[in-house]
């Protein structure tokens, strides 16, 4: 076998000052034996020169693909090189290392089947939940239909417990709307449950909860009142006025219900001092000047007056010309009277007019205020106290029912 070089590729002649036989002319190379001329290479024995220097034995020469694990130099002004590095292309024949294998493509068809299955499960779950909710609602409706009770006024002897959330009124075996003490859209106008006359609350007369219903509470100030827009009681005929009261004041006069805003009242029902002690009173005016000589009064003395829930009832029998006062369903007294003077002005809660001056501001609570256009008898008063008056005797006006 011959070591001669083929004629098509003759060896260059050594140039003067060259590196040695077979090396191109130019400055002597600074590399070791067998290194090509040019700037000193950074690698060791057998490493290529130029920009790809620094690799190990057998790495590709200049012009081939770069090392896939070598970070690219940062561009001028950039914070760093590209990351992750660009993957090399498939190596050509003769290269020693191949790039990492390409990532396996996901099974898109299997993923679509799993997604469709999840959607079907979700639809079934929502359908089942809807059926359950409908069943619960149907069951709740059945409960209200079967669990209703006849609505009756509560006349407990002590102040009912306070609750901030009213419950629906059940009547006639079916669910009725929740009771509202005020006119819709106006929280300061008491709703008339049996008529059409609202009562406007004064600044210091506040609506508050009472069990599942409501009451009004006065502070005993000049603004602790409420009044209607027009007269409610026709005092020229028989009538009954009743209210459940809770007096917080130990002294003075405090009127729960009256009528008239002129020079004097027509009637008043509440607390007054009699013989130096508080007593329940029902008083009417028979003269147009409001003089003491023309008033008639029925009193109930010696009873618990302070912080005790009490049912007061005042009646006037126009035929018999008698007024009567009932306390907790029991008659406290009665007295004959001349015809009652028809005072000018509306119904008042929490005050009364004396000699053109407002007196008797209410301190405490009021509720279950009713007006009848007849004089209830002693038997009816006792039945009313027990909540057994019956549906045949209906009030013409009522507010704050419990």
N-end to C-end Cα span = 127 Å
Radius of gyration: 52 Å
Task: Tell me the major beta sheet.
Answer: 9 strands, antiparallel
The number of helical runs is 2
Biggest sheet strand order reads 3-4-5-8-17-10-11-12-13
Secondary-structure element pattern, one letter each: HEEEEEEEEEEEEEEEEEEEEHE
Task: Name the beta content range.
Answer: 25-35%
General shape: elongated
Give helix % range.
10-25%
Are there runs of 5+ residues with pLDDT below 50, and where?
1-23, 28-35, 40-65, 67-89, 94-98, 135-173
What is the residue-averaged pLDDT? 75
Query: How many individual β-strands?
Result: 21
Q: Classify the secondary structure makeup into a structural class.
A: alpha+beta
What is this entry, summarized?
With 402 residues, the protein is α+β, with helices and mostly antiparallel strands. The protein has helices spanning 108-146, 378-385, and strands spanning 168-171, 174-178, 182-183, 186-190, 199-201, 205-210, 213-219, 226-228, 239-247, 254-259, 267-274, 277-285, 295-300, 309-317, 322-327, 330-336, 347-349, 352-354, 357-359, 363-372, 397-399.
């Amino acid at each position: 076998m011959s070591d001669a070089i083929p004629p098509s590729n003759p060896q260059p002649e050594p140039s003067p000052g060259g590196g040695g036989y077979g090396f191109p002319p130019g400055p002597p190379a600074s590399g070791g034996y067998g290194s090509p001329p040019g700037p000193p290479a950074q690698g060791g024995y057998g490493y290529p020169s130029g920009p790809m220097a620094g690799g190990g034995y057998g790495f590709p020469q200049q012009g081939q693909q770069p090392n896939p694990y070598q970070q690219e130099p940062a561009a001028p002004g950039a914070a760093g090189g590209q990351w992750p590095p660009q993957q090399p292309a498939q190596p050509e024949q003769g290269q020693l290392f191949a790039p990492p294998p390409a990532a396996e493509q996901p099974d898109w068809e299997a993923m679509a089947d799993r997604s469709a299955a999840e959607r079907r499960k979700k639809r079934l779950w929502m359908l089942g939940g809807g059926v359950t909710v409908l069943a619960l609602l149907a069951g709740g409706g059945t409960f209200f239909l079967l669990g209703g009770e006849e609505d009756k006024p509560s006349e407990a002897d002590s102040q009912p417990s306070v609750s901030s959330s009213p419950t629906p009124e059940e009547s006639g075996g079916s669910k009725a709307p929740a009771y509202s003490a005020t006119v819709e859209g106006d929280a300061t106008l008491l709703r008339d449950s049996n008529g059409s006359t609202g009562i406007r609350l004064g600044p210091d007369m506040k609506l508050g909860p009472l069990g599942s219903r409501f009451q009004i509470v006065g502070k005993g100030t000049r603004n602790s009142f409420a009044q209607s827009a027009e007269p409610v009681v026709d005092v020229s005929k028989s009538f009954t006025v009743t209210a459940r009261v809770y007096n917080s004041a130990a002294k003075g006069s405090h009127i729960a219900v009256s009528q008239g805003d002129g020079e004097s009242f027509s009637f008043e029902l509440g607390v007054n001092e009699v013989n130096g002690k508080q007593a329940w009173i029902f008083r009417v005016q028979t003269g147009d000047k409001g003089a003491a000589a023309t008033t008639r009064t029925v009193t109930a003395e010696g009873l618990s007056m302070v912080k005790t829930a009490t049912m007061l009832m005042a009646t006037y029998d126009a035929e018999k010309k008698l007024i009567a006062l009932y306390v907790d369903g029991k008659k406290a007294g009665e007295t004959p009277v001349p015809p009652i003077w028809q005072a000018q002005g509306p119904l008042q809660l929490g005050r009364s007019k004396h000699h053109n001056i407002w007196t008797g501001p209410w301190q405490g609570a009021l509720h279950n205020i009713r007006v009848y256009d007849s004089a209830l008898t002693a038997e009816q008063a006792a039945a009313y106290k027990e909540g057994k008056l019956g549906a045949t005797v209906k009030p013409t006006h009522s507010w704050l029912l419990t």
